[in-house]
Specification:
The protein is an alpha/beta fold. Helix content is about 40%, strand content about 15%. The two termini are about 30 Å apart. This is Putative oxidoreductase YtbE.
């Protein structure tokens, strides 16, 4: 399996990402990003909402990995919807990250406080700011996060440049099949956030435990591999060096069809999306 995918505009994106959600302890966040890059990750995912862009930027600098070798993503915070606010927010992210471009920038959520009634127009105007930043070279690729079918229909009918990515919550028990299908039909690559969510619920599942023995892999590695084989880009996070390294070791095995089918039919017990 290739460790890179090609976006619709020709940009290459690594198929495994290091996520930084909830990594707000300064030293832990910096060290986590630095360790991930030293381990071999080349795809770092953050967001304005996470409040850690400056820390992520520092971790990148301390890693001494050349900026051109890193695929760096951030996302628009909810209060920054709208054309003017989004334009400023993009520049603010660049400053906090300490870089003159981002490889990918996403609208984080489609329906936000202050725009619950006019989300259609809000998303169109916000997207216009992303399109302009893309054309100016500030962003190498633009996309969406948590956009479902109704949100996609609205944006796709009113954009000049099609989104290249849709980042969704995806793991056994949450498939979002219609959204995934529509996104792919429009040329988007799918990223999976929280791909390890089922881990705690699967610890006592005999079939899954037997899989860890069969493949000689941890449950986390199985869940990340499952995501890869569904043709998603999983975003995994940890601040522990051993786990960061373990989560990257998912390219030397393949889950067979029977076990993939078991994961496909597994039932999630909990909130559906958030």
């Amino acid at each position: 399996m290739s460790k890179l995918k090609t976006l619709s505009n020709g940009q290459l994106i690594p198929v495994l990402g290091y996520g930084t959600w909830q990594n707000t302890d300064p030293q832990e966040c910096i060290d986590g990003v630095k360790t991930a890059l030293e381990t071999g990750y080349r795809h770092i995912d953050t967001a304005q909402m996470y409040g850690n862009e400056e820390l992520v930027g520092e971790g990148i600098r301390l890693s001494h990995v050349p900026r051109k070798d890193i695929f760096l993503t951030s996302k628009l915070d909810n209060p920054n919807h709208g054309y003017e606010r989004a334009k400023k927010a993009i520049d603010d992210s660049l400053e906090r990250l300490g870089t003159d471009y981002m490889d990918l920038f996403l609208i984080h959520w489609p329906e936000v406080e202050g725009h619950m009634e006019d989300w259609q127009e809000s998303n169109i105007e916000t997207w216009r700011a992303l399109e302009e930043a893309y054309e100016a070279g500030k962003i190498k690729a633009i996309g969406l996060s948590n956009f479902k079918t109704k949100h996609l229909k609205n944006l796709l009918a009113n954009c000049r440049i099609k989104p290249m990515v849709n980042q969704l919550r995806l793991h056994p028990g949450i498939a979002q099949k219609e959204t995934v299908a529509m996104s792919r039909e429009a040329g988007m690559v799918i990223q999976a956030w929280s791909p390890l969510s089922p881990l705690s619920q699967m610890l006592d599942d005999e079939a899954v435990v037997s899989m860890t023995e069969k493949y000689q892999k941890s449950l986390a590695q199985l869940l990340l591999r499952y995501s890869l084989q569904k043709d998603f880009i999983p975003l995994t996070k940890s601040v522990h060096k051993d786990r960061i390294k373990e989560n990257a070791a998912i390219f030397d095995f393949k889950i067979d069809e029977e076990d993939m089918a078991y994961f496909d039919q597994w039932e999630w017990e909990g909130e559906l999306f958030n």
